[in-house]
Automatic annotation (TrEMBL):
The electron transfer flavoprotein serves as a specific electron acceptor for other dehydrogenases. It transfers the electrons to the main respiratory chain via ETF-ubiquinone oxidoreductase (ETF dehydrogenase). The keyword Flavoprotein applies. Its cofactor is FAD. InterPro entries: DHS-like_NAD/FAD-binding_dom, ETF_a/b_N, ETF_a/FixB, ETF_alpha_N, ETF_asu_C, ETF_asu_C_CS, Rossmann-like_a/b/a_fold. Heterodimer of an alpha and a beta subunit. Belongs to the ETF alpha-subunit/FixB family. Keywords: Electron transport, FAD, Flavoprotein, Transport. GO terms for molecular function: electron transfer activity; flavin adenine dinucleotide binding. Residues 4-185 form the Electron transfer flavoprotein alpha/beta-subunit N-terminal domain. The lineage of its organism: Bacteria, Bacillati, Actinomycetota, Actinomycetes, Propionibacteriales. Pfam families: ETF (PF01012), ETF_alpha (PF00766). GO terms for biological process: fatty acid beta-oxidation using acyl-CoA dehydrogenase. This is Electron transfer flavoprotein alpha subunit apoprotein. It comes from Kribbella caucasensis. FAD binds at residues 205, 228-229, 242-246, 259-266, 280.
Amino acid sequence: MSNVLVLVDHTGGKVRKTTAELLTIARRLGDPIAVYIGDGVQDALPALGQYGATKVIALTSPELTQYLVAPKAEALQQVAAKVEPSTILISSSAEGKEIAARLAVKLDSGLITDAVDVQAGPVTTQSVFAGNYSVQAKVTHGTPIITVKPNAATPEAAQTSPEVEEFDVSISDTAKTAKIVESKPREATGRPELTEAAIIVSGGRGTGGDFGPVEAFADSLGAAVGASRAAVDSGWYPHAYQVGQTGKTVSPQLYVAAGISGAIQHRAGMQTSKTIVAINKDEEAPIFELVDFGVVGDLHKVLPAATEEVTKRKS
Ligand SMILES: Cc1cc2nc3c(=O)[nH]c(=O)nc-3n(C[C@H](O)[C@H](O)[C@H](O)COP(=O)(O)OP(=O)(O)OC[C@H]3O[C@@H](n4cnc5c(N)ncnc54)[C@H](O)[C@@H]3O)c2cc1C
């Protein structure tokens, strides 16, 4: 079997769900080898083994975390030279895509970004033109480097006991040009990350500025909260939660749009969601054209009733 490199996404050893998804995809293509950058690899091992990593390559050189992306791309180039992978999978975050682009140049390889699916080949699927087209593509030169969007696969467990191999990398001075002087995590909301969440409940202008029912329903489902641009521009919800063309692109298992009309720019960010539910008091609202389930009604009545029912069924 060929080796497939997976760059691990983690926060201090806590492996993110995107990595479980990448490992699941990697198993369709060959033997997944996880590349872990930074401290805490021992904490990450159980999660990496749970999703089938056959080996973990640990890169602990301090420059890798002291500088912005360039050293990470150099390090991956050196790992690739040793492992000779058939494919390299990286998460489609802003950082992931920059690492992937730099790596593609270094390896003289083809790069595909924002895949929503990857099958044997590897053949990728991308959703383009505001989700109106689905494109299948294949890298034809070098080692395929593919960045994969969150929720592109459902993580499937495959218990392994990966060994850890420490790998020394040498980072050039030209890669050490942008030093991180400070970093602090965003204040936790207790809800899942918007781009990784399996369920999202979004509110729009129809909330009238009261996101209470949206948040309560989201919490009953363990979901993230999103917002339309109209709601964000009105100052009702922070910009970091905007879904759409000029906000985040999301693809959860379930997307609930409450008081959102369904403008093309909003759809662009959410129409690849697996199941879409809308609550809108206007039965002619365009959002109803793309939903799996639609509720015509006032969200201030529908959401609290739904929240109560979910809470009742959970207890
Ligand atoms: C270049 C560009 C980029 C853009 N990028 C984005 C983007 O990233 N994301 C985005 O969302 N938009 C974006 N927009 C804006 C987009 O065109 C729409 O204006 C916006 O999505 C509308 O938000 P909305 O659906 O919340 O509001 P509206 O279009 O005003 O719709 C509100 C809906 O709520 C319903 N409603 C009202 N009261 C209730 C109630 N009590 N209960 C239930 N339903 C109710 C109404 O029937 C209506 O359908 C962009 C626009 C441009 C030009």
